[in-house]
Amino acid sequence: MQTRDPITNLINALTKLPGIGERTASRLAFFVLNQPDELAENLASALIEVKRQVGFCSQCCNLTKDDRCTICKAPKRDQNTICIVESTPDLRAIERTGEFHGTYHVLHGLISPLEGIGPDDLRIRELIERLGRSQVAELIVATSPSVNGEATALYLQRLVKPFEVKITRIASGIPIGGDLEYIDRVTLSRALSQRREL
Predict the structure, then answer these.
(1) Could you give the number of structural domains in the chain?
(2) Quick check: helix, strand or coil at residue 15?
(3) Does residue 142 lie within any of the structural domains?
(4) Residue 155 is part of which domain span?
(5) 194 or 118: whose pLDDT is higher?
(6) Does 49 share its domain with 96?
(7) Cα 123 to Cα 118: distance, rounded to the nearest angstrom
(8) What are all long-range contacts of 171-180, with beta carbons under 8 Å and residues at least 24 apart?
(9) CA-to-CA distance for 68 and 61, rounded, in angstroms?
């Protein structure tokens, strides 16, 4: 709600960001006020620029300012392996490992009937079109091991069956440094069922 007070308007705007409560928003607002004008101008400019220039990659639906993202354009990437992720932050997390050299497909969400999000609300149609026009050997489903992540993985598994493409799921289990006594039953059960030979 807009008021006549610009400080209150800024605080209200900042509280709409995820993870930002009123106290944090207030701290940020007063921090911006106490900085040189250049900081506020650069921040405002960056926000406007990202909203105007960033769109979806025409191949993988990653966020990019170009028609195709840098990953899809990279000649050394394995175009026959696609890792399906929920969001661009998930893609970036996998990229930081340096272990995956294929391409991606970003769904921009997960199937969640309770929130009214169905397959048509995700970038699944673009994935099917992509499978129809290229030779893909493997799809790696890298959605979270949550109820919605599992539902999305099962839906994708059934949907791509006619394409006769190998579909795999990322492993999940006990985190490095985790103590067994504090691990929940589902995670421990999954770790046992997905064990591998040493």
Answers:
(1) 2
(2) coil
(3) yes
(4) 77-169
(5) 118
(6) no
(7) 11
(8) 172/145
(9) 9
Q: What is the pLDDT of residues 92-133, one digit of tens each?
A: 999 999 999 999 999 999 999 999 999 999 999 999 999 988
Element (H, E) at 7: helix 6-14
C-alpha span between 78 and 72 (Å, rounded) = 9
Residue 118: both structure tokens together: 């169905």
Strands (DSSP E) found in 45-165: 55-56, 63-64, 78-85, 102-106, 138-141
| Best CA proximity match to 104, nearest among 151, 152, 59, 148 | 59
Task: Count, in order, helices (H) and strands (E) of the chain.
Answer: 8, 6
Identity of the residue numbered 66:
D
**24 and 81 share one domain:** no
Q: Are residues 148 and 108 in the same domain?
A: yes
Inter-residue contact 165 to 180 (CB < 8 Å): no
**What 3-state class would DSSP assign to 136?**
coil
What are the backbone angles phi and psi of residue 80, rounded to the nearest 5°?
Answer: -90, -5
pLDDT (tens digit per residue) in 63-103: 999 999 999 999 999 999 999 999 999 999 999 999 999 99
